[in-house]
Design a protein that fits this description.
The protein is of the alpha/beta class. The protein is built from 16 helices and 19 strands.
Length: 438
Amino acid sequence: MSFFFYPKSVAVFGSFKRGAIAYEILRNIVEGGFEGRIIPVSLKGETVEVAGKTFKIRERLDEPVDVAIIAVPANIVPALIDEIGPLIRGAVVISAGFSEVGNIELERELVENAKKHGVRIIGPNCAGIFGVHGKFFGSFEVRVKPGGLALISQSGAFGGAALAMGNEGGVGFSAFVSYGNAADLNESDFLEYFADDENTKAIALYIEGVKDGKRFMKALSYAASKKPVIVLKAGKSASGAKAAASHTGSLAGSYEIYRAVFRQAGAIEVEEMEELFDAAKAFEMYPKTGKRVAVITNSGGPGVLATDKLEKLGLEMAKLREETVQKLRSFLPPQCSVKNPIDLIADADYERYRRTIETVCRDENVDSLLVICVPPIFIPSEEIAKAVIDAECNKPLIVNFMAGELVRNGVKLLEEKGIKNFPTPERAAKALKWLSLR
């Protein structure tokens, strides 16, 4: 399926009036820097100007392309697929009005016409796809920064919101696919594909329900054996299951069955969107870690909160070796606590943080470090961020700089070096929990 995410040519079908879906997708493709051929198609012909470029709108597709993105009325989609089938490898059908509103026969006709020509279909009733490393933004959703997360979403709107949240949280993406009704390609196909995609480090999956449970179990197990798979399941309650059925026409089924499948396959289930991206941030940085955590903080309260959360999550506060404790005592002020959590007190500067991180990291009883910083007004957060960056440590290191404007510059400096910030001690602790599940 790589032609979907790394295409060399694309045709966009629909209206190219400003604000129309096809126009917005075309604009996203052009502004996103796509380097292949771009062909807008509409029966009205004429030209369209997008991002300073003028394209001739063709009345019909008359040359081969890898992908067709279709945003025309649902009732003409099957015939269009039949017409252009010999010229395309895959189609992304944005158009709604198929099985999700009861038009099952129309959707069946769409799939049959595609199969006749060996064409694969994403959708219908979807928000499109991104192949971020291929500079291909074949959707009307917000563009994202390149990175390692592939987001698979049954819901287009959820996907759009999730992309925006990911941007805000410093998550980088390898791909995005909204698959809607899954008339042909579905979540199992994408799990298998991204499991083998070299640009994808972790997979995030939002599902409401699946149609082929055995196939899903097999695909999920395969993907989770290769890289972290983070799952957010909607439709857990009875009312939620009914809403899911009316949304994409899928059967949500018993949540207990899904939960058992996730566990058996080795996937990591999260409860909320926020957790989805916190887990993704953790796995973008590190593949896994053990359960023994050392907490380093300049503020006692957040250190206690982190300790409480770590233990509640089933992680362990690492028991530091006596050699480590003596080394810490040799350079830390006597007011500092050298027990885990290690409290560097409020005036902790660059040198105190850097030396503590390096000393604790060398302790063989420590699997990972959680570094907390609540900077006083007389120590810039950038100074502590630089200490984290400069410290020589080869173990997973999760940071919690808080809060808001006080740490904005420090967080920016960390993110420039690929170190993601978790805004509360509890969220940082959860990040370590997810890493320990691999």
